[in-house]
Amino acid sequence: MSNVPVAVVTGSNKGIGFAIVRALCKQFPGDVYLTARDTGRGQEAVAKLQEEGLHALFHQLDIDDLQSIRALRDFLKEKYGGLNVLVNNAGIAFKVHDTTPFAVQAEVTLKTNFFGTRNVCTELLPLVKPYGKVVNVSSMVSSSALGGCSKELQQKFRSNTITEDELVELMTKFIQDTKKSVHEKEGWPNTAYGVSKIGVTVLSRIQARMLNEKRKGDHILLNACCPGWVRTDMAGPKATKSPDEGAETPVYLALLPSDADGPHGQFVSDKTVRTW
Ligand code: NAP
């Protein structure tokens, strides 16, 4: 088994994830795994970094596929006895003018952004070594969508006692409500991406609390963040930040020094803790 530190970035064949891997290759003292659901696209991305003189390793990972997540888990367990840095970056968004029915957009978006990210956490968090870092890439849209929720929902999503099961129930209810076209009446905002990212931010707050309760002595720091508005296939060419600039906050959180006791359980953008 290797004692080399190891970092894993989900959805990193392009966009912000690719830029996070690039930065980690330069700054992380260990093995850096670029992961992708499509092996061809992943290996092309590794080759592109190779041309820049950077050495990333590759492992397949489709966060929608539990078998794929578990294959990565078993690989990390066997080869490294765990992992040191996990960046949950993979995500999807329908374009604003997409005509796919809203209920379908809700189900598909939450499947990857919330349930997929949660499944990766369920399988990989127990493997994170002491002093490890976990970064869940959420979005400022989670904050604005929270503002668009009913008072009752806002209270639940800001609660310091909400459980993961309760959060899953709420995310499932959103999907069901969209199918019955009652989501607005039930206090939800009209954004599937926004609700999926509320899920990611609240999940991060819950996970950080669980680490405090169950693994206090392990000094693991776990946060959600927004990369900013970044020029990628998702956000388009008009966005203000380059992918390398978008990677800055996630990489800052992934490389917090071992004597840092925070941020932890926070929502961070531009390297600054934001009020949730
Ligand atoms: P992007 O260019 O569309 O890249 C998304 C990445 O996620 C791609 O590598 C994609 O792989 C991967 N992915 C999608 N579904 C996956 C799955 N089921 N399993 C594994 N990988 C999957 O988007 P981006 O702008 O870099 O976004 C990265 C993250 O930042 C997302 O979580 C996004 O919500 C968040 N974010 C972005 C912005 C922005 O302005 N760009 C702002 C706030 C937050 P494929 O190539 O195979 O599709």
Automatic annotation (TrEMBL):
Main location: cytoplasm
Subcellular location: Cytoplasm
InterPro entries for this protein: CBR1-like, NAD(P)-bd_dom_sf, Sc_DH/Rdtase_CS, SDR_fam
Any one GO CC term of the record: cytoplasm
CDD domains recorded: carb_red_PTCR-like_SDR_c
Tree of life domain: Eukaryota
GO MF entry, a single one: carbonyl reductase (NADPH) activity
Keyword NADP part of the UniProt annotation: yes
Name of a matching Pfam family: adh_short
Keywords: Cytoplasm, NADP, Oxidoreductase, Phosphoprotein
UniProt-listed Enzyme Commission number(s): 1.1.1.184
Broadest EC class assigned to this enzyme: oxidoreductase
Family assignment from sequence similarity: Belongs to the short-chain dehydrogenases/reductases (SDR) family.
Protein name: carbonyl reductase (NADPH)
Organism: Bucorvus abyssinicus (Northern ground-hornbill)
